[in-house]
Amino acid sequence: SMTTSNHLRHVESLSILPSGAGKIPRLNAVILGEALASEEDDLVFPSQEFSQNALVSSPQKYLEMYRRSVEDPAGFWSDIASEFYWKGKWGKQVCSENFDVRKGRINIEWFKGGITNICYNCLDRNIESGNGDKIALLWEGNEPGCDGSLTYNQLLEKVCQLANYLKDAGVRKGDAVVIYLPMLMELPIAMLACARIGAVHSVVFAGFSAESLSQRIVDCKPKVILTCNAVMRGPKLINLKHIVDAALAESTQKGVAIDICLTYGNDLAMKREDTKWHEGRDIWWQDVIPKCGTTCPVEWVDAEDPLFLLYTSGSTGKPKGVLHTTGGYMVYTATTFKYAFDYKPIDVYWCTADCGWITGHSYVTYGPLLNGATVVVYEGAPNYPNAGRCWEIVDKFKVSIFYTAPTLVRSLMREADEHVTRYSRKSLRVLGSVGEPINPSAWRWFFNVVGDSRCPISDTWWQTETGGFLITPLPGAWPLKPGSATFPFFGVQPVIVDEKGSEIEGECSGYLCVRSSWPGAFRTLYGDHERYETAYFGAFPGYYFSGDGCSRDKDGYYWLTGRVDDVINVSGHRIGTAEVESALVSHPQCAEAAVVGVEHEVKGQGIYAFVTLVEGVPYSEDLRKSLVTTVRTQIGAFAAPDRIHWAPGLPKTRSGKIMRRILRKIASRQLDELGDTSTLADPGVVDQLITLADA
Ligand code: 6R9
């Protein structure tokens, strides 16, 4: 196909590596937001030593593998899949898909008929190959000095105990289990226990409010919820059990009652006797789990049986239950982890993401454990008790691969470099970035200061929906460009289209789509296949539409430019503007709300909310606070608006549609770029809003 050959040609023209290898320029950090004139020409080469030892050591080697992956996807992926344990081999057709809404229902299947279990492949398989005594999880608590670890053998025992408990509680293959836990080892344990018995886990990030948790419970109707009483995050105590109690009360009212609330007593945060208890429903984890058997037979499942649900934000107020299945997700997360981080068995790997997000699913739990890796799980806040905590942990565990989000990089680069340089960090080998575009200045600081100009950065572009990396560096294979996620992973065929959905070739910018499926792709939105089809495959028929804007430079490098839909990305967290708006209008004094994203120095984007009040209600500081509180309690603290802008009227077309384009310009004070306001029902509201912004 055209795009494939285009991409191959682009990479073929990358003859720069052999002559450039070994040269590592010391880049000068530039101030935040300031771009170099020739950003695209700014190449950062891996050292010769790094490349020589890398799994993929040159553009040519990548090209060879990439060519096979798109020309013979069945052969490419089944060779890799064969490295895992399958109780029964998949059928003749490795992949069957319909990616085109015009040809009927969207449908994606990989390794259909293959019988396997991802928990078995994470644990039992690695133990059988002699790694039972290798450390699987290295846990670091919120308080320095408080830690723990589990070998692969020990992890399997813990997983089996919980799996046995869940089975005794009546959880069967296909049943949903909601997990609302902080970053304790019990969180990956819970995910693996569900997978072991074929239950579908739905992890809800423990920063979500009772309302959000309840909304997810009502949607997926779990038999059991796994949680803990409380957690310390930095200096702050968070009473999770309070949130769960409120969520369960609300769900019960909506007709979804949960029989069992298995609660881990996190003694370091809160005494068990201080925990509010619902006799009959609540059960202490420590009272029942240690008594359960430490072996548990595996529930063998089809490659296309569901593995998990993870709710994410879209452009309407209702979160989408992204559903991933077992076989393709397993093969894809394992393979992307291995190549994007150039993983070697001696590595110690730390991803700072929470398992409540997709990054924690694919690259804290499944991808690394499938590779038999040693994984650091950190409970606390990355800047607690001070800005050096991450590097203290890196030195303590000799972390060699460190994967984090641009927002953390930006917040740490505001502090003195001394917080970094007082630690050795010499164990570091590869750095990673995910969640949002990383601005070149943050990239340089990460590269120069954290990585001592030694460690390539894998800027991995992907989504909850994609299951794993779609565009990512392979760190030994080609030079990096600060701010670019570089090239597509094996088997991925990115396409940039214009407004009309026509593919654009060569150097260009437009909407980022994908031409055909990859094994880790999500298969549906839980309970709403139609929304799956319209939201992702309807905009540009024939393609999967990511919702992101993107450009491709003359060397074929991809540059992600952020969401082009009504989703904003705050500190790498996806938030739908409609969700925040519906939280705001639930406030009795708020009549209407319009939310837009604005540039934010640390968070990437901040939340800017225009609110119209109920007739006769005066705007005040108390009301502002109360509106922000409403969003915190409806969604979670991470979604709290950074700015509330009182709007007696909103700019609307004559048909009543809010013109967000204008609101975005007002929010970012680009007042000379307001554009044509003559089509507004009442053009006067614009001046009124501008005046109120200055007030
Ligand atoms: C993995 C994850 C997905 C959205 C995605 C895009 C943004 C993620 C990025 C990136 C530029 C990167 N995004 N990684 N943008 N460069 N390396 O974050 O999933 O929470 O579903 O968010 O995040 O806008 O569309 P998710």
Shape: globular
Biggest sheet statistics: 8 strands, mixed
Percentage of residues in DSSP E strands: 15-25%
Give the helix proportion (percent range).
25-40%
What structural category characterises the helix and strand content?
alpha/beta
**Number of E-state strands:** 31
The radius of gyration is: 25 Å
Low-confidence stretches: 1-5, 15-37
Number of helices: 23
The small molecules bound here are: ligand 6R9
InterPro entries: Ac_CoA_lig, ACAS_N, AMP-bd_C, AMP-bd_C_sf, AMP-binding_CS, AMP-dep_synth/lig_dom, ANL_N_sf
EC number: 6.2.1.1
Domain Acetyl-coenzyme A synthetase N-terminal: 62-122
Protein name: Acetyl-coenzyme A synthetase
Mind sketching the topology for me?
Layout: H1 2-12, H2 16-20, H3 48-53, H4 59-71, H5 73-81, E1 95-98, E2 107-110, E3 115-116, H6 118-122, H7 124-131, E4 135-140, E5 147-151, H8 152-168, E6 176-180, H9 186-196, E7 200-203, H10 210-220, E8 224-228, E9 231-233, E10 236-238, H11 240-253, E11 260-264, E12 282-284, H12 285-288, E13 301-302, E14 306-312, E15 320-325, H13 327-340, E16 348-351, H14 358-370, E17 374-378, H15 389-397, E18 401-404, H16 406-413, H17 418-421, E19 430-433, H18 440-450, E20 457-459, E21 494-497, E22 503-504, E23 508-514, E24 524-525, H19 529-537, E25 544-552, E26 558-563, E27 567-570, E28 573-576, H20 577-585, E29 590-600, E30 604-613, H21 621-634, E31 643-646, H22 660-667, H23 684-694
Parallel strand pairs: 4-17, 6-7, 6-8, 7-14, 8-11, 11-12, 16-17, 16-18, 18-19, 19-20, 30-31
Antiparallel strand pairs: 1-2, 3-13, 4-5, 9-10, 14-15, 15-24, 21-22, 21-23, 23-25, 25-26, 27-28, 29-30
This protein binds ligand 6R9.
